[in-house]
Specification:
Largest sheet: 7 strands, mixed
Number of helices: 6
Number of strands: 9
CATH topology: Rossmann fold
Bound molecules: S-adenosyl-L-homocysteine
Strand order of the largest sheet: 5-4-3-6-7-8-9
CATH architecture: 3-Layer(aba) Sandwich
CATH class: Alpha Beta
CATH superfamily: Vaccinia Virus protein VP39
Strand content: 25-35%
Order of helices and strands: HHEEHEHEHEEHEEE
Length: about 220
């Protein structure tokens, strides 16, 4: 692998600070989450054609007809996860890798699954090139989770699910959290957080409407 020198200049740093200010105004209050967003160079996760807009609070298309989530959505989901240093976190839907890097900046041990081979390979290379090689990426079906690496402190699903995946709940530690957009693929979804109180005792909370690409079954 040739070493890629990437630019993260004053302009990009300035735009990132402005984005963080916007997120604060929109209600993101967790300082650690805001610091993480202020650190990850989002312009490196978009195709060069969209680089200009990397620090706007918008979602953008990436490979395989997928999207990099809007920064507000990334911040919102991350805040709900209440990440603590050393947390073992499973992300479903690696996509561009941006969300995984935000979790990594919060000092979590990050595992992330992607069902698109092309996207998995491209993003895994990107993460290594820009210095995030400690994030563990997996090509597979997120509905199965990672039984060999389980249990996890937190699970984050970044695609919409119609029915709560019980296989994933089984891979959570007691008192672990799972955050996911719950609802029909065609409509908006309700941001949902489940706390696993016990093997058979789950507490569920709802946090407003969002729109995600669907979590699909099987590998691509
Ligand atoms: N977290 C990503 C956003 C990804 S969009 C980012 O920061 O860029 C949702 C991603 O979930 C897509 O890449 C899609 O391919 C993936 N996905 C959908 N269903 C999946 C499944 N069953 N297992 C793993 N990944 C899945």
């Amino acid at each position: 692998m040739p070493y890629m020198i990437f630019e993260d200049n004053y302009r990009q740093k300035g735009l990132r600070r402005k984005l963080v200010e916007q997120l604060r105004k929109k209600g993101i209050h967790d300082v650690n989450v805001l610091n993480a967003i202020n650190t990850v160079p989002r312009h490196l996760f978009l195709d060069t054609a969209f680089e200009e807009w990397a620090y706007k609070d918008n979602a953008f298309p990436i490979d395989c007809e997928q999207t990099i989530s809007q920064p507000y959505t990334v911040a919102f989901q991350t805040q709900l996860l209440e990440v603590k240093e050393g947390d073992k976190i499973l992300e479903i839907g690696l996509g561009s890798g941006y969300q995984a890097c935000v979790l990594y900046e919060l000092k979590a041990k990050v595992y992330s699954i992607e069902r698109h081979k092309t996207l998995h390979d491209k993003t895994s290379t990107r993460l290594k090139t820009i210095g995030y090689s400690a994030i563990r990426t997996f090509y597979g079906d997120g509905y199965l989770g990672l039984p060999r690496q389980a249990p996890f402190d937190k699970i984050l699903i970044t695609a919409s699910v119609k029915e709560t995946p019980t296989t994933l709940l089984a891979q959570l530690k007691i008192n672990g959290l799972m955050v996911y957009p719950h609802g029909d693929h065609k409509d908006t979804q309700i941001m949902t957080r489940i706390i696993k109180r016990n093997e058979n005792d789950f507490q569920q909370e709802a946090f407003g409407q969002f729109r995600f690409v669907p979590m699909l079954k099987g590998k691509e």
